[in-house]
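Q: Could you fold this chain for me?
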Amino acid sequence: MKKFGIIGNPLTHSLSPAMHKAAIKHLKLSLEFEKWEIPLRSLDDFFLNLEKNEIIGGCVTIPFKEELLNYCSNLHDSVRRIGAVNWFKVENGEVKGFNTDYIGFYNSLPEQIKSSVNDINIVVIGSGGSSKAVVESLISEGSEKLSIINRTIENANNISSKYPDSNIITSKFGDSYSKELISDANLIINTTSLGMSSGPNPNSSIIGDIKLNKDVVGFDLVYSPKKTPFLIKVEDSGGKAITGISMLIHQAIEGLKLISGENCPYEIMEKSIISEL
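A: Sure. Below is the predicted structure, expressed as C-alpha coordinates.
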Protein backbone atom coordinates (compact mmCIF):
# COMPACT_ATOMS: atom_id res chain seq x y z
CA MET A 1 0.00 0.00 0.00
CA LYS A 2 1.19 3.51 -0.79
CA LYS A 3 2.37 5.51 2.19
CA PHE A 4 2.81 9.06 3.38
CA GLY A 5 3.87 10.26 6.79
CA ILE A 6 5.79 12.72 8.90
CA ILE A 7 9.57 13.03 8.96
CA GLY A 8 11.35 14.74 11.85
CA ASN A 9 13.13 14.13 15.13
CA PRO A 10 11.77 13.95 17.77
CA LEU A 11 8.19 12.99 16.90
CA THR A 12 7.02 11.85 20.33
CA HIS A 13 4.46 14.64 20.76
CA SER A 14 3.50 15.11 17.09
CA LEU A 15 -0.23 15.51 16.47
CA SER A 16 0.09 14.75 12.75
CA PRO A 17 -0.42 10.96 12.95
CA ALA A 18 -3.74 11.33 14.75
CA MET A 19 -4.98 13.99 12.32
CA HIS A 20 -4.04 12.15 9.15
CA LYS A 21 -5.17 8.71 10.29
CA ALA A 22 -8.57 10.24 11.10
CA ALA A 23 -8.64 11.84 7.64
CA ILE A 24 -7.70 8.54 5.93
CA LYS A 25 -10.54 6.79 7.76
CA HIS A 26 -13.09 9.52 7.04
CA LEU A 27 -12.20 9.82 3.35
CA LYS A 28 -11.74 6.03 2.93
CA LEU A 29 -8.32 6.49 1.36
CA SER A 30 -6.15 3.52 0.38
CA LEU A 31 -3.13 5.03 2.11
CA GLU A 32 -1.08 4.40 5.24
CA PHE A 33 0.39 7.11 7.45
CA GLU A 34 3.78 6.48 9.09
CA LYS A 35 6.15 8.22 11.50
CA TRP A 36 9.73 8.57 10.25
CA GLU A 37 11.79 9.58 13.25
CA ILE A 38 15.28 9.40 11.80
CA PRO A 39 18.66 11.06 12.40
CA LEU A 40 20.02 13.60 9.94
CA ARG A 41 22.61 11.12 8.64
CA SER A 42 19.79 8.82 7.43
CA LEU A 43 18.10 11.35 5.14
CA ASP A 44 20.08 10.22 2.08
CA ASP A 45 18.97 6.61 2.48
CA PHE A 46 15.39 7.68 3.16
CA PHE A 47 15.08 9.59 -0.11
CA LEU A 48 17.00 6.99 -2.14
CA ASN A 49 14.42 4.37 -1.12
CA LEU A 50 11.17 6.28 -1.63
CA GLU A 51 9.99 4.16 -4.56
CA LYS A 52 11.05 0.89 -2.93
CA ASN A 53 9.12 1.80 0.23
CA GLU A 54 6.06 3.02 -1.73
CA ILE A 55 6.32 6.50 -0.20
CA ILE A 56 4.40 9.13 -2.16
CA GLY A 57 5.05 12.14 0.10
CA GLY A 58 4.85 13.48 3.59
CA CYS A 59 4.96 16.36 6.01
CA VAL A 60 8.20 17.70 7.43
CA THR A 61 8.94 19.06 10.88
CA ILE A 62 12.00 20.08 12.89
CA PRO A 63 14.89 19.77 12.30
CA PHE A 64 14.46 18.93 8.60
CA LYS A 65 12.44 21.79 7.09
CA GLU A 66 15.54 23.49 5.67
CA GLU A 67 17.43 20.26 4.98
CA LEU A 68 14.64 19.16 2.63
CA LEU A 69 15.60 21.94 0.23
CA ASN A 70 18.56 19.74 -0.71
CA TYR A 71 16.36 16.76 -1.58
CA CYS A 72 13.69 18.46 -3.68
CA SER A 73 14.37 18.93 -7.39
CA ASN A 74 11.31 21.11 -7.82
CA LEU A 75 10.38 23.87 -5.37
CA HIS A 76 7.23 25.99 -5.20
CA ASP A 77 8.02 29.74 -5.40
CA SER A 78 6.77 30.25 -1.83
CA VAL A 79 9.34 27.71 -0.59
CA ARG A 80 12.17 29.73 -2.11
CA ARG A 81 11.04 32.87 -0.27
CA ILE A 82 10.25 31.13 3.03
CA GLY A 83 13.36 28.96 2.86
CA ALA A 84 11.69 25.86 4.28
CA VAL A 85 9.78 22.78 3.11
CA ASN A 86 6.96 21.41 5.27
CA TRP A 87 5.51 18.97 2.70
CA PHE A 88 7.08 16.93 -0.08
CA LYS A 89 5.41 14.95 -2.86
CA VAL A 90 6.86 12.27 -5.11
CA GLU A 91 5.57 12.62 -8.64
CA ASN A 92 6.98 10.98 -11.79
CA GLY A 93 10.16 10.11 -9.95
CA GLU A 94 10.66 13.72 -8.86
CA VAL A 95 10.55 15.05 -5.30
CA LYS A 96 8.61 18.32 -5.14
CA GLY A 97 8.82 20.65 -2.15
CA PHE A 98 5.94 22.73 -0.79
CA ASN A 99 5.14 24.95 2.16
CA THR A 100 1.54 24.89 3.36
CA ASP A 101 2.21 26.82 6.57
CA TYR A 102 1.50 30.13 4.86
CA ILE A 103 -1.81 28.83 3.50
CA GLY A 104 -2.71 27.32 6.85
CA PHE A 105 -2.07 30.64 8.57
CA TYR A 106 -4.25 32.63 6.18
CA ASN A 107 -7.10 30.10 6.31
CA SER A 108 -7.10 30.47 10.11
CA LEU A 109 -7.79 34.20 10.02
CA PRO A 110 -11.29 35.60 10.71
CA GLU A 111 -13.17 36.81 7.65
CA GLN A 112 -13.12 40.43 8.82
CA ILE A 113 -9.32 40.29 8.91
CA LYS A 114 -9.09 38.67 5.47
CA SER A 115 -11.35 41.30 3.93
CA SER A 116 -9.30 44.18 5.34
CA VAL A 117 -5.78 42.73 5.34
CA ASN A 118 -4.49 45.52 3.07
CA ASP A 119 -5.81 48.29 5.34
CA ILE A 120 -5.02 47.20 8.89
CA ASN A 121 -1.87 47.51 10.99
CA ILE A 122 -0.25 44.09 11.37
CA VAL A 123 2.66 43.16 13.63
CA VAL A 124 4.60 39.89 13.34
CA ILE A 125 6.80 39.12 16.37
CA GLY A 126 9.78 36.87 15.67
CA SER A 127 11.87 36.06 12.61
CA GLY A 128 12.20 32.26 12.52
CA GLY A 129 10.78 29.84 9.97
CA SER A 130 7.19 30.33 11.12
CA SER A 131 7.56 34.10 10.86
CA LYS A 132 8.75 33.76 7.26
CA ALA A 133 5.66 31.70 6.41
CA VAL A 134 3.35 34.25 8.07
CA VAL A 135 4.96 37.17 6.23
CA GLU A 136 4.73 35.29 2.92
CA SER A 137 1.02 34.75 3.57
CA LEU A 138 0.26 38.36 4.48
CA ILE A 139 2.27 39.91 1.64
CA SER A 140 0.81 37.54 -0.96
CA GLU A 141 -2.67 38.55 0.22
CA GLY A 142 -1.94 42.27 -0.14
CA SER A 143 -0.87 43.51 3.31
CA GLU A 144 0.44 47.07 3.05
CA LYS A 145 0.95 47.95 6.74
CA LEU A 146 3.12 45.12 7.99
CA SER A 147 5.80 45.30 10.69
CA ILE A 148 8.27 42.65 11.85
CA ILE A 149 9.59 42.98 15.40
CA ASN A 150 12.53 40.91 16.57
CA ARG A 151 15.27 40.99 19.18
CA THR A 152 17.89 40.80 16.41
CA ILE A 153 16.75 43.38 13.87
CA GLU A 154 19.12 42.02 11.21
CA ASN A 155 17.01 38.85 11.05
CA ALA A 156 13.85 40.89 10.58
CA ASN A 157 15.61 42.88 7.84
CA ASN A 158 16.59 39.65 6.09
CA ILE A 159 12.91 38.71 5.81
CA SER A 160 11.77 42.14 4.64
CA SER A 161 14.50 42.22 1.97
CA LYS A 162 12.75 39.37 0.14
CA TYR A 163 9.81 41.71 -0.50
CA PRO A 164 11.47 44.95 -1.71
CA ASP A 165 8.22 46.45 -3.02
CA SER A 166 6.20 45.89 0.16
CA ASN A 167 7.47 48.65 2.51
CA ILE A 168 7.73 46.29 5.47
CA ILE A 169 8.70 48.06 8.70
CA THR A 170 11.26 46.37 10.97
CA SER A 171 11.91 47.21 14.60
CA LYS A 172 13.99 45.91 17.49
CA PHE A 173 11.95 44.14 20.13
CA GLY A 174 11.62 46.12 23.34
CA ASP A 175 12.39 49.60 22.03
CA SER A 176 9.85 52.43 22.14
CA TYR A 177 9.01 52.18 18.44
CA SER A 178 8.19 48.48 18.66
CA LYS A 179 5.89 49.18 21.62
CA GLU A 180 4.12 51.86 19.59
CA LEU A 181 3.67 49.45 16.66
CA ILE A 182 2.17 46.81 18.97
CA SER A 183 -0.13 49.32 20.64
CA ASP A 184 -1.47 50.51 17.25
CA ALA A 185 -1.85 47.03 15.76
CA ASN A 186 -5.14 45.50 14.66
CA LEU A 187 -3.55 42.07 14.26
CA ILE A 188 -0.58 40.76 16.29
CA ILE A 189 1.03 37.40 15.49
CA ASN A 190 3.42 35.77 17.93
CA THR A 191 5.71 33.36 16.07
CA THR A 192 8.13 32.85 19.00
CA SER A 193 8.05 30.08 21.61
CA LEU A 194 7.47 32.50 24.49
CA GLY A 195 4.49 31.28 26.52
CA MET A 196 4.79 27.66 25.36
CA SER A 197 4.11 25.11 28.12
CA SER A 198 7.39 23.28 27.50
CA GLY A 199 9.40 26.43 26.77
CA PRO A 200 11.76 28.39 29.01
CA ASN A 201 9.22 31.13 29.81
CA PRO A 202 5.76 29.51 29.98
CA ASN A 203 4.26 32.28 32.12
CA SER A 204 5.55 35.23 30.11
CA SER A 205 3.55 37.32 27.65
CA ILE A 206 5.41 38.50 24.57
CA ILE A 207 3.73 41.91 24.81
CA GLY A 208 4.20 42.52 28.53
CA ASP A 209 2.07 45.39 29.81
CA ILE A 210 1.71 47.25 26.49
CA LYS A 211 -1.77 48.71 26.06
CA LEU A 212 -3.59 47.15 23.11
CA ASN A 213 -6.34 48.17 20.73
CA LYS A 214 -9.69 47.04 22.16
CA ASP A 215 -10.55 45.35 18.83
CA VAL A 216 -7.15 43.70 18.38
CA VAL A 217 -6.88 40.15 17.07
CA GLY A 218 -4.06 38.15 18.65
CA PHE A 219 -2.76 35.04 16.89
CA ASP A 220 -0.32 32.80 18.78
CA LEU A 221 1.31 30.03 16.76
CA VAL A 222 1.91 28.21 20.05
CA TYR A 223 -0.90 25.71 20.76
CA SER A 224 0.19 24.35 24.14
CA PRO A 225 -1.30 25.72 26.31
CA LYS A 226 -4.48 26.56 24.43
CA LYS A 227 -4.44 30.04 25.93
CA THR A 228 -0.96 31.49 26.30
CA PRO A 229 -0.29 34.55 28.50
CA PHE A 230 -0.24 36.61 25.27
CA LEU A 231 -3.72 35.46 24.25
CA ILE A 232 -5.07 36.01 27.76
CA LYS A 233 -3.82 39.61 27.58
CA VAL A 234 -5.50 40.04 24.19
CA GLU A 235 -8.85 38.84 25.53
CA ASP A 236 -8.51 40.95 28.67
CA SER A 237 -8.12 43.96 26.36
CA GLY A 238 -11.39 43.10 24.62
CA GLY A 239 -9.78 41.49 21.59
CA LYS A 240 -10.13 38.13 19.85
CA ALA A 241 -7.65 35.28 20.47
CA ILE A 242 -6.66 32.63 17.92
CA THR A 243 -4.59 29.61 18.93
CA GLY A 244 -1.95 27.88 16.84
CA ILE A 245 -4.01 24.69 16.61
CA SER A 246 -6.07 26.27 13.82
CA MET A 247 -2.98 26.86 11.65
CA LEU A 248 -1.71 23.34 12.41
CA ILE A 249 -4.95 21.79 11.16
CA HIS A 250 -5.30 24.03 8.11
CA GLN A 251 -1.74 23.36 6.94
CA ALA A 252 -2.40 19.62 7.35
CA ILE A 253 -5.59 19.87 5.28
CA GLU A 254 -3.63 21.58 2.48
CA GLY A 255 -0.86 19.00 2.69
CA LEU A 256 -3.24 16.07 2.48
CA LYS A 257 -4.86 17.72 -0.54
CA LEU A 258 -1.43 17.86 -2.23
CA ILE A 259 -0.83 14.17 -1.58
CA SER A 260 -4.28 12.68 -2.20
CA GLY A 261 -6.32 15.32 -4.02
CA GLU A 262 -8.93 15.00 -1.27
CA ASN A 263 -10.21 17.69 1.09
CA CYS A 264 -10.70 16.63 4.71
CA PRO A 265 -13.23 18.61 6.79
CA TYR A 266 -11.58 20.70 9.51
CA GLU A 267 -13.79 19.17 12.21
CA ILE A 268 -12.52 15.63 11.49
CA MET A 269 -8.91 16.54 12.18
CA GLU A 270 -9.81 18.78 15.11
CA LYS A 271 -11.81 16.03 16.81
CA SER A 272 -8.91 13.58 16.42
CA ILE A 273 -6.51 15.68 18.50
CA ILE A 274 -8.79 17.44 20.97
CA SER A 275 -7.94 14.93 23.72
CA GLU A 276 -4.20 15.48 23.14
CA LEU A 277 -4.35 19.23 23.86
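A (continued): The longest strand covers residues 3-8.
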